[in-house]
User: Fold these one by one.
Assistant:
Number 1:
Amino acid sequence: KRHLISAADLSRDDAVLILDTAEELARIADRPIKKLPTLRGRTVVNLFYEDSTRTRISFEAAAKRLSADVINFSAKGSSVSKGESLKDTALTLEAMGADAVVIRHHDSGAPHRLATSGWINGSVVNAGDGTHEHPTQALLDAFTMRRHLEPGTGGGLDGRRITVVGDILHSRVARSNVLLLHTLGAQVTLVAPPTLVPVGVATWPCEVSYDLDTVLPKSDAVMMLRVQRERMNAAFFPTEREYARRYGLDGDRMARMPEHALVMHPGPMNRGMEITAEVADSPRCTAVEQVANGVSIRMAVLYLLLGGASPGEAPAAGTST
Ligand code: CP
């Protein structure tokens, strides 16, 4: 495959290959020599039209650990603010020899447009587009779940019950997770206020519940989503207190989960809204581990898309950090 635009692009074999490659790369990166020569001479452009902390930094870390050259482009402070189009920006990046463009954009469909436009020849990786998809987030989430729930198996997440809670309507993370987790054999239940469930959810491969307390005891992992107020009409939103009371995860609710079950959050968190500080800082919460796993997943995606040298190869002289 040349691009990664949607979790739906991935067959089960594709997804397992990415997870297994990320495991291999994480094992190598745990050794004292952290930098691999696999993408030396390649250029990865981080093209970010929307704010990001975790995704942008981890794609940069991933590309650098594979010895690629990295160009960070933020729409803020660029000629985008003078009205330059995505097409002209893409042509500029192509002229600079981008082998891969990692794009985050406020418009759903922008990565697809870039991949199919002919404006660039390199690979396109969707780093989050509008309310559509965030496939590498879903991959790092599945990687984290597999490590905890199916350690050492190297397969999928067959039969595991995953609950995704909160602002599904605006969540590209939820959509990508539903698609990927279904592909990996898990059963997904979405829990949200009725106003924050997308109209087309009946076509998604998952169940929907409005009662968090009945779903928690049957969950192997509970993923809390950020309430995306910046994408929301205030009229659709219950009060903060009402939201936290019905859909927030606090210590009492966490105690209803099975002992082995994970608490997950893609970040950034609204502490006190969808998750209390007590839960966010508890050992059961994998939010920080998800960030670390994101580097391994993004290394695997770049490595597989750009067809680098074998990740098991010893680094050449001068490449260690
Ligand atoms: N989870 C996630 O995409 O975080 P950022 O917006 O900080 O990249």
Number 2:
Amino acid sequence: IAHGKPQRETPWWRGHVADLVARAEAGTPRYVYHLPTVRARARALRETTAIDLRFYALKANPNPAILRTLEAEGFGFECVSLAEVAHVLATLPGIDPARVLFTPSFAPRAEYDAALAKGIHVTVDSVEALQRWPESFRDRAIWLRLDLGRGDGHHEKVRTGGSDAKFGLPVAKVNAFVAEARKLGTKIVALHAHLGSGIDNPSHWRDVFADLASLADQVGTVDIIDIGGGLPVPYTADARPFDIAAWRAGLDEIKAGYGRYRLAIEPGRYLVAEAGVVLVRATQVIEKDGIRRVGLDGGMNVLMRPAMYGAYHGVHNLSRIDDAAISAFDVVGPICESSDVFGRARMLPAASAEGDVFLIADAGAYGMAMANTYNLRALPAEEIIDV
Ligand code: LLP
């Protein structure tokens, strides 16, 4: 069909520039989250009846206001540590434990025991766990996490399937796992796979569902199929937005053939990435060997993604938002590492100067969650906008 390529919608913060500049007065670096954007993304994932269970992967952003917002939108929560589990239970008192899923990786036995005792869902991804800790799993219901032999995603560091990845039981070991589970009276009630993050292929999830459903037919006791998270967001200005309608259509179609299974998803990034920005302030502008650099008061300590994955985040000078962005600058932070670079040759207003408030875009997922105190820098502040 011949139609123009879908454009990114205007980001929410374009309507809040004066407010954001004012908020920066209270101190930078500062994360700001826009709850209406979180709600809009949550609703985009609800426009299908194919999905029965939605878990938000709170490793992306555990901010309590975001958890409350997504709980109100009908989401449960996927946790990768007992501390995340405790955070959900403390933030949302009275939440039904059945809305919490624990997907540990190489956790000690005590963590499985604690999670099972709370009545939350727990994934297991090795035969070794059942063999070494039979009393932990005897007569329990568990979810089996699988490695479908392939990974996908925006960077090799976020692929969680295939031999090089530490996650998941390989399909070749399913029979051994089922036999071991049977011995213990352990019931496999769900099959789970999360193969990576930032996967820009709408049919990925329907393929994962199909693979898991055919395995579920073999296992026999399965009720739920969890196809993971990994939905991407457009980070660059000219990026094509993820085709969420095609994603939903794929799930509708595949679910129609496997109505006996309940379908679960566990997205993180898609729900929160575009809702978050970081406010930082320019410290110095320095020219060296023909390269002009603008330094900001937060760097890879505040937002690690560019240094860790070469990830792109838009950089905007809010103090001069009406000036043409016609001069190339490298945008750097204050950290004692050469990788402390937000972007190279970014086009910014020529007059960009010390004291200007800058905005780093699309930082709501894996931003504050991965912030750290390297060089003994304080963690950023966080605040919410709900209009
Ligand atoms: N479920 C499981 C089991 C996961 O391991 C993850 C993410 C998710 C769900 C949510 O994935 P999402 O929908 O957010 O793609 N720090 C990296 C991403 C690491 C993802 C870790 N696991 C980044 O900033 O790109």
